[in-house]
Amino acid sequence: MGALLSDLDYVFLERAYELAARGIGSTSPNPPVGAVVVRDGRIVGEGYHHRAGEAHAEVNALAQARDRAAGSTAYLSLEPCNHVGRTPACSHELLDAGVARVVVGTIDPNPKTNGEGAAFLRAAGVRVDVAGDSRAKALIEIFAGSLGKTRPYVALKMAMSIDGAVASQVGVRQQLTGAAWSSFVRDLRIAHDAVMVGAGTIRVDDPLLTVRPPHHRLRPYVRVVACETDTVVESSRVFANVDGYLKTIVLAPAGLRSHFEPLTHVADVVFAGDDASERLDLALAMRALREREIYSVLCEGGPTLAARLVADGLVDRVHWGIAPILLQRDGAVPVLSGVDFEALQRRLRFDRLARVGDDVLLSGTFACDV
């Protein structure tokens, strides 16, 4: 499919990807999409999907192009939708505007579209070319990863020393990565509906878990604390009221309801499992988050929670930050606690390596079971 495209086609597609990226963190549960309308080799209209419920990228680009859209080529990061929801079907909007050709980065995996937008336009005489670009697929990975699941898409972010530790000893708060990594993590938080940590991280680091500086969007962000058996104090900063954030969610085992009852004054406590459960059932807890319309979660650890998520097959992607520091000594805390590394190696496939300031990013996907 990509063989049909010229070098100039890819230049305009790249612009569509750049526009789509502007909507990351604001379009959930929709994917970020960018659109460029080109006539006679010149851009006559641009647009992107700003927020869920508002006009789609194609509509914004066509509005800018106006009558110059007739006979044009529309470059879209994602196949146009072919169904009517809160907004009109974009495939019909393109046809009505007189667009002669449509070039899309990738087909929409949403069953409501999934090739139907392209098929509709072709049947109406519009030429449609599909690039099948990895860049286009990466833009919608979170959206695609949540489709058909009863849980959110889950990304796991971990930072460690070269020798695989997160701290020199238990209970010590230790900053391993630099400012560039912190900026990268901010972008990750923006891209996901919720950020989650384990109770141990709350006790040691007492984080606020917000995006700083703030990133405003239509749907509020959520902070999540997963508790295995022990609770956290009500005065923890994660429970502070913050504009743009819903009440913090605490995930707790249903068998310890009385133990966690005091937190109901400051948090939305979700009890998972049956009344005899004294260990958090993470699979049920993640389904409870999805029922609250949380479509994506960024887990920032610590080691015990990260290992549980990996072992239970609940992680879609891992972002592994490696700092140029050596920590391994007696009592050092490993980045993953109690993991079957042989099984992990079989399931994890790294697909990205990048330098982030003085640190290194390794990112990959899991073969998930749940």
Ordered list of secondary-structure elements with their pairings:
Blueprint: H1 7-21, E1 34-39, E2 42-48, H2 57-65, E3 73-76, H3 90-96, E4 101-104, H4 116-123, E5 127-130, H5 134-139, H6 141-146, E6 153-161, E7 165-167, H7 179-191, E8 194-198, H8 199-205, E9 222-226, E10 249-253, H9 257-260, E11 268-272, H10 282-291, E12 296-299, H11 303-311, E13 317-323, E14 333-334, H12 341-347, E15 348-356, E16 359-366
Parallel strand pairs: 3-4, 4-5, 6-12, 6-13, 8-9, 8-12, 9-10, 10-11
Antiparallel strand pairs: 1-2, 1-3, 7-14, 13-16, 15-16
Plain-language structure description:
The protein has twelve helices and 16 strands. With 370 residues, the chain is of the alpha/beta class. The chain has a nine-stranded mixed beta sheet with strand order 11-10-9-8-12-6-13-16-15, with helices on both faces. The chain has a five-stranded mixed beta sheet with strand order 2-1-3-4-5, with helices on both faces. A two-stranded antiparallel sheet has the order 7-14. β10, α9 (257-260) and β11 form a beta-alpha-beta unit.
> Terminal Cα separation, in Å?
32 Å
Largest sheet: 9 strands, mixed
Q: Give the structural class.
A: alpha/beta
Shape: elongated
Poorly predicted regions are none
Number of helices, where a helix is a run of at least 4 consecutive DSSP H or I residues: 12
Tell me the total number of β-strands: 16
Helix content: 25-40%
Question: How much beta, percentage-wise?
Answer: 15-25%
The overall pLDDT, averaged over residues, is: 91
Radius of gyration, CA atoms, in whole angstroms? 23 Å
What pattern of helices and strands is seen along the backbone? Answer: HEEHEHEHEHHEEHEHEEHEHEHEEHEE
Biggest sheet strand order reads 11-10-9-8-12-6-13-16-15
